Every structure is written in C-alpha cells, then in structure tokens.
Amino acid sequence: MNDLPIGIFDSGVGGLTVLRAIRRCLPGEHLIYLGDTARVPYGNKSPATVTRYSMEDAEFLTKKGVKMIVVACNTASALAAPELRAQFPGLLILGMIGPGSRAAAVATKNRHIGIIATAATVGSGAYESRIRETFAVAGDAAPVFVVSRACPLFVPLVEEGETESEIARMVAAKYLAGLQDEGIDTLVLGCTHYPLLKGVIAGAMGPRVTLVDSAEAAAAETEQLLAERGLLRDADSGGTEQFYVTDAAATFNRIAEAFLGRAPQHLELAAWDGRTEQA
C-alpha cells in the first residue's frame, strides 16, 4: 500500500502549488494530478455543482488506485469535503480549509486574520468557522477577528498566466484595498491559485502582513497523516508524477512548465469513464 500514489485534484492549474509543496516534503511519493480544466473555475459555481464535480474528480482518482486524495481546491474543500468522506469512507481525504486555518492561528500575533478566496469559499464561511474552532479546541476563548474578501478575477488571471503583469497588480490593489485598515497581521491565501500571485499580493499588503499558503500547510499535514498510518514511501526511492486534464492540455502544459520549472513528463486528457488519451 505504501507504493500507491497520492491523488491531487483541482479545477485547473492552481493545485500545482499543492503538488509542488507535497513534492518538496515527500520526494519519494508517486503523485497523480487531475486538473478539471474543462470546467474551471469552481469558485462561481453552486454548491451542488461543485460537489458533483468533486465527486467525479475523486472517482477518477480512486480508479487510479490512490492511497490518499488531497483536495487541492479551497472551494471544493469548503463545499464538498464532507460528501467526499462519506462516499469514500476508507480513503484518507485532506482538504485545504483545516491546514490553512491551523497555520493562520499559529501565524497571527494580534488575532486579526484576513481571508481572500473565491466567492463560493467566502460565502461558505468555512474558514471563519474553522479558524474559531481551532482556537476553541486549544482552549483559547479570547475574541478572534476574521475578515473575508472574494477575489474572483484572481483565478482567470492565473489560468491565463498573468501572474506578474501590470493588470495583475492593478486587480490585486483593487481587491485588497482597505484590508490593512482592518488591522490584520495575517492573510490566508484561501485558493490554491493565489500563491501563484504571491508577489503581487505581498506587494499590495506590505511587509507587516504574513501570507499563509494553505498549499504548504496541506503538504505538511499530508506527510503527518501518511506517517501516522505507516503509509510513507521511502524518500530515496524517487517518486513519479502523472498529470491529467479534462481540456486545454497545451495551456496547462505551458503554465505547469513555467511554474514547476519543467514540463509535465506524463500528461493525458481524462474522461469520466476512466479513459485517457495522449495530450
């Protein structure tokens, strides 16, 4: 079972931030990535639609024989994680909300935390609930201030490769204006696409605000969960990577190569009946 791969899915290229973080932590693991590029973004879809898409994504990965699924999409994590765990009860499933919330609780000094995410994630209130729950579980009943801001244009900017352009800086300045006035000292990047815009986000927020990357937090918890269950693969074995997309393979390949520093070696088009074809 240790040699089985870890499955990772996202609506598009954003989950590559999670894959990259997991690869850093777990160089010996086999990884399978599914980007649902035909239906990106998930952040403006209804909860029922996001849940249906997520179920199909997870089913595709389970047919590949994965030992764990990382839901590398905050929207899917917020809206579909309970249904996924109910549908696949024997499978480890980790979302983004818990790891990101726990990392934010550790990072903040003044208990004023900002969340930027898709409209669906913000509307779910998942981060606010989990952050307060994290403090409560630790026996800390002091007030916590959480402010959320939807940034819907960030995902298409990333999907188009506009991560360091002037238009990206203008959009970031518009979305993030006023957040510093809320007194936050910590900002959770509540969408796995957003770390690809970390430079422009940091520029807009300034050096006094700590950015929390939920991808890095999820990678650390992935390692912890597998270690607790004795499912880690030998780090010296050398892990493989497989990539599947549902559309726009050439665009995915270009962005993945720019972000990962290498072209995906195994990239195929995925169909929901389990079929694949060379991209």
- Which stretches are poorly predicted, pLDDT < 50 over at least 5 residues? none
Question: What's the tally of helices?
Answer: 11
Measured by DSSP, the beta-strand proportion falls in: 15-25%
Question: Looking across the biggest beta sheet, what order are the strands in?
Answer: 4-3-1-2-9-10-11
Mass-distribution shape: globular
- The class by helix and strand makeup works out as alpha/beta
Order of helices and strands: EHEHEHEHEHHEHHEHEHEHEE
What is the strand tally?
11
CATH topology of the largest domain: Rossmann fold
Under CATH at level 1, the class of the largest domain stands as Alpha Beta
Number of structurally distinct domains: 2
Helicity range of the residues?
40-55%
Structural notes for this entry:
With 279 residues, this protein is of the alpha/beta class. It has 2 domains: 153 residues, 3-Layer(aba) Sandwich (Rossmann fold); 117 residues, Rossmann fold (3-Layer(aba) Sandwich). It contains 11 helices and 11 strands.
